[in-house]
Specification:
The structure holds two protein chains of two kinds.
Chain A (H helix, E strand, L loop, with lengths): L13 H14 L6 H12 L4 H11 L3 H10 L11 E6 L2 H5 L2 H12 L12 E6 L11 E3 L2 E3 L7 H5 L4
Parallel strand pairs in A: 1-2
Antiparallel strand pairs in A: 1-3, 3-4
Helix pairs in contact in A: 1-2, 3-4
Chain B lengths: L5 E6 L2 H5 L2 H14 L6 E6 L11 E4 L3 E3 L7 H10 L9 E2 L6 E2 L6 H4 L17 H6 L4 H9 L2 H11 L11 H10 L6 E6 L8 H8 L1 H15 L3 E6 L4 H16 L15 E6 L9 H8 L23 E5 H13 L1 H4 L10 E8 L5 E6 L4 H8 L9 E6 L5 E4 L9 H6 L8 E6 L4 H15 L5 H18 L7 H15 L3 H4 L3 H20 L25 H5 L5 E2 L7 E2 L9 H5 L7
Parallel strand pairs in B: 1-2, 7-8, 7-10, 8-9, 11-15
Antiparallel strand pairs in B: 1-3, 3-4, 5-6, 11-12, 13-14, 13-15, 16-17
Classes of the chains: A alpha+beta, B alpha/beta.
């Protein structure tokens, strides 16, 4: 019995590597599937470290440069680790008109992170995202999987206290 | 299907999910069971009802009573009073903003009664996860007709007669597009559905996919027959997880029923559909970029011609249609092109779905006949502007569009008429803005969006939009100079004429449109260093006008930074050293006393 060895990376366990390899195997012969493979791999690891991108490129038999190019082109993918709780604030027009700017400034004042940043203890990442299509609830933020709508700027900090 | 005395059509769209429809559903089901009503009263989770602002919403059929803002606490009362004793619960009715009148029946609520449903005909009426319910409303009849009784030429002919135009924004005649792809040679062709809804403030496609996924599949089957394609893809934003899940269910069910796959309905015609999840790039809404993305590459546009009808996905003939366009196709085939063309204006036929949002009372999804004046959309259906504020403009067409001010509100909804006032029909985003919106800041917002989403392939868009953004930021920061407006106009002209794709060619529209109608606001920012709408933080002093201050203390309570000192019967004072300029006090002050 041979033990398969994986590239060593502090954030990727052998179990994760196995899952990723299964995804690569299932998709490597399907033309154009690399974006899906990257998405599913990111769901497993949380982000896409360069070692992982190289591994996917090799498995998919694609130039690493092309896979890296795809990764940096789409906003879904991130090369940096994210916080335990990802705050997605909608920066669509309706939310903008309804005052998402004030919501963001309350979060920044309290937790010291701006859009695109992660707290040093990885408690929160703050992301500005494109219109979530929930304009009826504007302004909207998503924390983890929970949608919080009709936000009042002064309530935001209280909502975030529930996430550690 | 068993017969029920009552059907409770509970909205299960994204909007209502997030306001607690799931919890409400569980509580209601439990209560119905406890009262022994579960057999005769059935809860049906529908797709997006459209009236997201007052969610969770529920329609009681057959009587048509419409309930809004439902909470778990309302369950016992609702079951006891309405479902047992037959007395609808007044406190959960919709209340008309102007008259303060509670309206029980859905057909009497202006938001619904002024609409005409075609693309959205099944919204809120069926369970989108049950194919039988779609079939019961004539679903897949059009596909059967197209596959068994019509030639490809006849299908294209009906679509041409309907004069339907692409609902994604550009408004290209759909029948013409199909005829090009049908005429191009090649044994492999593709039908694509564009569900990469990217315009901020637009959620038509999401709602349609969530509430009636089979209609899109049926539209694609008919398109496939028309151009002789074997494979289709739905390119959907990965953010729309509920829509994707419902599409997956719909595709699986259609395959089980022999409506997708080999030899559909014994017609000898075979067609398959796969879902492709986008990864977040606005430019992928552009057709050639979308096709590159499906090929697993960076989603960058390429010059046209060759057009996708000749060389599209994998360089094979391809048609790409928007979700709303495809949702209309089954009805056109079933009722004929002339039926579809019977409403609308001379050049814009049928209906258009709008996502009404922003500073308007009735936020939600609406479908209106072409030719309706924009004013009716905002005041009759939308219920006007909340909080007694004044209307300023409505932004149509998102970052590629423009704004329509008060004095142009009687413009009819029509591709050409809207273009005349400097906006575009677009995909249907309609964001209403009240007097508190700064139009320069709005233009800056859209330019920020566009320059961020520019793919970088062509220089005019990559560099030009960045230069425009810098100028707009400068103006919003109070550092605008004479000549900035003229530079903006020059840049706009160059980018519009020389950019590679639609994203760049229309990038300047929000600036040109605000300059056309609100030039005075730009001038106030540049010459007087004043933001008339009080939105540009750099131009605000954060001081209290003692003349206007009513000494109420609301600003004091709202301030998160303890920067305001106030006592009863005293004018509030802001310590600008402590102030974090979060605007909380501005939003709370009812007397316009902070400047």
């Amino acid at each position: 019995m041979s033990i398969k060895s994986y590239p060593s990376h502090p954030d990727i366990t052998d179990e994760m590597w196995e899952k990723i390899d299964a995804i690569i195997d299932a998709n490597k012969d399907i033309a154009g599937s690399v974006i899906g493979v990257l998405r599913m791999s990111q769901d497993i690891v949380g982000y896409l470290p360069v070692e992982l991108i190289d591994h996917i490129a090799e498995g998919m038999n694609l130039p690493a440069s092309q896979v890296f190019g795809v990764t940096t082109f789409y906003s879904l993918f991130t090369l940096k680790p994210k916080g335990r709780n990802i705050i997605k604030v909608c920066t669509g027009t309706a939310c903008y008109v309804k005052g998402i700017k004030e919501v963001i400034s309350h979060i920044t004042n309290k937790h010291g992170i701006r859009e695109g940043e992660t707290m040093s203890d990885r408690r929160f990442s703050l992301e500005g995202v494109r219109c979530l299509g929930a304009c009826g609830l504007a302004p909207v933020m998503i924390v983890k999987e929970d949608i919080h709508g009709n936000l009042k700027p002064d309530e935001v900090v209280g909502i975030l206290d529930n996430y550690n | 299907m068993s017969k029920n005395r009552m059907q409770l059509m509970l909205c299960g769209g994204t909007g209502c999910h997030s306001t607690g429809s799931k919890k409400f559903e569980l509580a209601l089901q439990k209560e119905l069971e406890a009262k022994g009503l579960a057999e005769e009263i059935k809860i049906i989770e529908t797709g997006c009802n459209g009236f997201c602002a007052v969610g969770p919403v529920m329609l009681v059929q057959p009587e048509g009573v419409f309930y809004q803002k439902l909470k778990v606490e309302d369950v016992p009362l609702l079951v006891e009073e309405h479902f047992l004793k037959g007395r609808p619960v007044k406190k959960l009715f919709f209340v008309e903003q102007k008259s303060k009148e509670a309206i029980p029946n859905i057909n009497d609520i202006p938001f619904f009664s002024n609409q005409i449903y075609r693309a959205m005909r099944n919204k809120g009426a069926i369970d989108p996860e049950v194919i039988d319910e779609y079939i019961a409303r004539d679903g897949y009849f059009a596909a059967a007709k197209a596959l068994n009784d019509m030639t490809p030429e006849e299908i294209v002919e009906q679509v041409k007669i309907s004069q339907i135009r692409g609902r994604g924004g550009a408004g290209f005649p759909t029948g013409m597009k199909w005829s090009f792809a049908a005429a191009s040679s090649g044994d492999e062709k593709f039908v694509l559905c564009n569900a990469d809804e990217g315009d901020p403030g637009a959620f038509m496609d999401r709602s349609l996919l969530e509430s009636d996924p089979h209609a899109i599949l049926e539209g694609m089957i008919i398109a496939a027959k028309a151009i002789n394609a074997r494979q289709g893809y739905i390119y959907c934003r990965t953010e729309y997880q509920l829509a994707i899940r419902r599409l997956e269910i719909a595709i699986r069910q259609a395959k089980e029923y022999g409506l997708l796959g080999e030899n559909i309905l014994d017609s000898g015609f075979s067609f398959n559909i796969d879902i492709y999840q986008g990864a977040g790039a606005f430019v992928c809404g552009e057709e050639t970029a979308l096709m590159r993305s499906i090929e697993g590459k960076r989603g960058m546009p390429r010059p046209r011609p060759p057009f996708p009808a000749l060389k599209g996905l994998w360089d094979k003939p391809t048609i790409l249609n928007n979700v709303e366009t495809l949702a209309n196709i089954p009805q056109i085939i079933l009722n004929g092109g002339e039926w579809y063309a019977s409403i609308g204006t001379e050049k814009s036929k049928g209906t258009k779905v709008f996502a009404l949002s922003g500073d308007v009372n009735n936020i939600g999804l609406v479908e209106v006949p072409m030719g309706l004046p924009i004013r009716k959309l905002i005041y009759d259906i939308g219920g006007g502007i909340p909080g007694g504020k004044k209307f300023k403009a409505v932004q149509l067409g998102g970052p590629s569009g423009g704004c329509v001010p008060e004095h142009k509100l009687d413009t009819p909804i029509d591709y050409e008429e809207i273009a005349k006032v400097g906006a575009i029909m677009g995909s249907g985003g309609a964001i209403v803005m009240d007097e508190n919106t700064c139009m320069v800041d709005m233009a800056r917002f859209f330019m920020d969006f566009i320059q961020d989403e520019s793919c970088g392939k062509c220089t005019p868009c990559r560099e030009g939009t960045r230069r425009m953004l810098e100028l707009l930021e400068k103006i919003c920061h109070g550092e605008g100079e004479d000549g900035d407006i003229e530079t903006l106009e020059t840049l706009s002209a160059v980018i519009s004429q020389s950019a590679l794709c639609g994203l760049g060619q229309t990038a300047a529209n929000p600036v040109l449109s605000t300059l056309r109608f609100f030039r005075d606001e730009y001038e106030a920012h540049i010459k007087d260093k004043v933001c008339p709408a009080k939105r540009c933080i750099a131009l605000l002093k954060f001081e209290v006008d003692p003349e206007k201050c009513k000494k109420c203390g609301l600003c004091y309570k709202a301030c998160p930074a303890n920067a305001i000192t106030w006592q009863k019967k005293e004018v509030a004072v802001i310590d600008t050293g402590k102030c974090v300029k979060c605007m909380s006090c501005f939003d709370k002050c009812k007397f316009d006393a902070i400047f």
